[in-house]
Design brief:
Elements lengths: L7 H6 L7 E2 L2 E3 L5 E4 L2 E14 L7 E10 L4 E7 L6 E3 L3
Antiparallel strand pairs: 1-7, 2-3, 3-4, 4-5, 5-6, 6-7
Length: about 90
Amino acid sequence: MVAHSRSTRAARSARRLNEPRRALVEAHADGTPSRINRQGVAVVREEWRIVDRWWTDEPVDRRYYDCVLESGEHAVVYLDRTTDGAWFTQRA
């Protein structure tokens, strides 16, 4: 059975593909993540920055980190510099 497209349940469960989610991140003094969602970071494989749409009312300024957690799991997180400094996780 498929939920009706206008039902409340379908609206709550639907979300964009690859939508960022808030993450709990503890960082070292240099800003690199040390723990992501209570899991230790084994290694930061890559780091990059994206600055875009600076000329609009909704600029993008993010510092991304591609990490391997101590469990072996892969995680990509970013610090959103246009908000209150919130951290997000996003599938690569």
